[in-house]
Specification:
By secondary structure, the protein is an alpha+beta fold. It has 2 helices and 5 strands; from the N terminus they run αβαββββ. About 15% of the residues have low confidence. The chain has a 5-stranded antiparallel β-sheet.
């Protein structure tokens, strides 16, 4: 159990480090600063939004031209944190199987 927790912690830490390296930006900053960075440097615009937990807001930013994407989390104090980023973004619209139906 301890080894599994260590591996999961290491994986999460690696993901956060990769996201920070990928955009060469601070992990958290003001919402204005982070959204300006995503727009100016990567041409990313907001594509989706949702509530995470009880008080945080998750947003997905992406660029059609380059295919880059970023997932951010805005905290109640106004800080926005870069959670993940990557490439090859594409918009997909598909119907999911009905509840209880085989996939």
């Amino acid at each position: 159990m301890t080894q599994q927790m260590f591996a999961l912690s290491l994986g999460l830490g690696g993901m956060l480090a990769a996201a920070q390296i990928a955009h060469s930006a601070p992990q958290c900053d003001s919402r204005e600063t982070v959204t300006a960075l995503l727009a100016d440097r990567y041409d990313e615009t907001r594509r989706a939004i949702g509530i995470a937990g009880e008080a945080a807001v998750m947003e997905l930013f992406a660029a059609e031209t380059t295919g880059t994407w970023s997932i951010t989390m805005t905290l109640p104090d106004g800080r926005m944190c870069l959670m993940a980023s990557g490439s090859n973004y594409e918009t997909v619209t598909e119907d999911l199987p009905a509840s209880g139906s085989p996939a």
